[in-house]
UniProtKB/TrEMBL annotation:
Originating species: Paenibacillus glycanilyticus
Annotated InterPro entries: ENP1_M14_CPD, Peptidase_M14
Active site: 266
Protein name in the entry: Peptidase M14 domain-containing protein
Pfam families per the UniProt record, alphabetical: Peptidase_M14 (PF00246)
Length: 298
């Protein structure tokens, strides 16, 4: 994760680290699950061979890009511990590998992350629209949406129309526009396809910030979800919160569609984008939380 020293961790860093991880640990497999609006492959890493199949993702929102290296560090530490028959935050890594199959999508929104980190270049086909949506500013560090100005975590068919009315956004912008219809964006489509195909037992979407765990959705969640959230909270010091007044998110759709446990974890504390210097402190809590997530359904 040397790139964090320079203050960023973008799409190229993610792909390079995925390739290095798979070369170093051949039991970690990589798959392309779809492509972004600008054609960037959206990568998933698979690790583990157990009967429990779970999913983690990061960087739904562009300015929350620090969630990607958090997931990448976790994947690398788990793989290294497996290779050495070692432990991961006090848990036997190989035991987790035998019990659980984990699919990690470290960067759901590669176009948006690159925009937030590097701004809009002359060759970007959306350049004029992006500058207009960003009120003429070439500073995109507050950008959350994808390259078409759609908030990918407001894209899922879970009371989407209510979320659209609540947001009140008439068109594309840096944040909060749910799109013209559910799953209009290829990034959201890719994640929905993966989820429907693999039928995960549980999912976790990593966002920033607030050090909170959201575990419910309109009473669709299973009865034991709150207890599972409490376990994640005890592992990390994060606060489980019963959330109301929010719809159309990935976790919301998963809970509604499958009636299985889903979690949104708000990593770190402060103002987005969280500073790279906070990375190690955030990971000291996220690492144990993700390890507990691997153990949840024992």
């Amino acid at each position: 994760m040397e790139e964090l020293v320079n203050g960023q961790y973008g799409y190229r860093d993610t792909v390079a680290d995925c390739d290095r991880l798979m070369r170093t640990y051949p039991f970690v497999r990589g798959y392309v699950i779809g492509h972004s609006v600008l054609g960037r492959p959206i990568v998933a890493l698979k690790c583990g061979e157990g009967t429990r199949r779970i999913h983690m993702n990061g960087s739904f929102h562009a300015n929350e890009w620090i969630t990607t290296p958090l997931l990448m560090r976790f994947a690398e530490e788990w793989a290294a511990a497996c290779a050495q028959n070692g432990s991961l935050f006090g848990e036997q890594a190989c035991k987790l590998y035998r019990e659980t199959e984990v699919w990690i999508v470290p960067m759901v929104n590669p176009d948006g992350v690159q925009l937030a980190l590097e701004g809009v270049d002359e060759g970007n086909p959306f350049r004029q629209q992006l500058l207009l949506w960003n009120k003429g500013s070439e500073q995109f560090d507050q950008w959350k949406a994808n390259i078409r100005g759609v908030d990918l975590n407001d894209q899922f068919p879970a009371h989407w129309e209510e979320e659209r009315l609540r947001r009140g956004m008439e068109g594309p912008g840096p944040r909060d526009f749910p799109g013209p219809f559910p799953l209009s964006e290829p990034e959201a489509q890719a994640l929905a396809r993966l989820t429907q195909s693999l039928q995960f037992d549980s999912v976790l979407a990593l966002h920033t910030q607030g050090e909170e765990i959201y575990w419910n959705y309109r009473e669709y969640e299973p009865e034991h979800s709150e207890g599972l959230a409490d376990r994640l909270g005890k592992a990390s010091g994060y606060k489980p919160v019963k959330l109301i007044g929010s719809d159309a998110g990935y976790k919301d759709w998963f809970i509604k569609r499958f009636r299985r446990p889903g979690f949104t974890v708000e990593a770190g504390y402060g103002v987005n984008p969280l500073p790279p210097g906070a990375f190690n402190g955030i990971y000291s809590k996220i690492g144990p939380l993700l390890t507990e997530f691997l153990r949840l359904h024992r």
